[in-house]
Amino acid sequence: MNTQPSSFNVAILDDCRFFLKLMVQTLHREKERNSFTFWSEIDVRVYSSLVDFELNDFTQPDVAIIDYYLGQTNGLQLIKSLQLKNKNCRVLLISGEASVPQKVSYTDHGAPTFLSKLDPHFFDKLRVFVEESYLATRS
Q1: pTM of the predicted model, to two decimals?
Q2: Which of 3, 39, 6 has the alpha carbon at shortest distance from 128?
Q3: Which domains, and CATH codes, for the chain?
């Protein structure tokens, strides 16, 4: 008997609608290419504001991809709140900042994984993060 959930929930929160669209296209393209693999189980939900994310009933994602800069707040505050509600959620903090000291600061303050939007392999790494997260929860 299979007791695992039928879908793998990915939440993406970024107030830059252009970059948000690019991330969604990357994951949907992977889903289309691999429709007979685990990618068919992935449900991607997108949010362009913290209010939108908090008001939505989708508060138990398996993966949360969160931008650091979110207007009045930052992604680190949301990560702490999210991890209190859902300790099994794998989190990827993203930012336009590329400096190593900034990355160290993010990880020191609770962001388990960081990826710079300026990384030339950002979208490949995003796809790999979701894939590895799925495999880690299903093993």
Answers
A1: 0.86
A2: 39
A3: 8-138 (3.40.50.2300)
